[in-house]
Every structure is written in structure tokens, then in C-alpha cells.
Amino acid sequence: MARQSRYPEEFRRQVAALVLDSGPTIRDVGREFGVNQETLRNWVARLRQERDGGRMSPGRRGRQRVVHW
Questions:
Q1: What is the arithmetic mean of pLDDT over 12-19?
Q2: Under the phi-then-psi rule, with left for phi > 0, alpha for psi from -120 to 50, and beta for the rest, what region is 52?
């Protein structure tokens, strides 16, 4: 069973979009909004994939993975 996120989906999207569209670093945005850097990095990857038309993104060691909200 998937666990409930403590952050609403719209918040995750908006914070990820801030990183992609406005230029501040994941580190800076994470600190400003109280979000762990790795968590925010995942959100940014998901939004980037979504904007790229849902294509798969390269995973570690060359594997492909699909990321979901």
C-alpha cells in the first residue's frame, strides 16, 4: 500500500516548477520550503518527465525507470 504524502500534489508541482522555471537551486528551494533535497529532486525529475511527454528517464547504472506523482 502506498503511503500518503505529507505534501499536497499541487504544492509538489509548484515547488518543482519553481526550480525548473526560475533558476534557484534545489538546495535553496528545499531550505526555503522545508523540503528535503532528495525529495525535491524527485519532484523535479517527475515534473521534467511529465513536461517531456511522459518519456522514460535514465535511472542509475543505465536502467530506464518511469517516475510517478
A1: 97
A2: alpha
Q: How far apart are CA 8 and CA 14, in angstroms?
A: 10
Rounded Cα–Cα distance for residues 69 and 18 (Å): 17
Report percent pLDDT > 90 for the chain. 65
C-alpha gyration radius of the chain: 12
Q: By the 8 A CB rule, do 17 and 47 touch?
A: yes
Question: What are the start-end ranges of the E strands in the chain?
Answer: 57-58, 64-65
The more confident residue out of 7 and 2 is 7
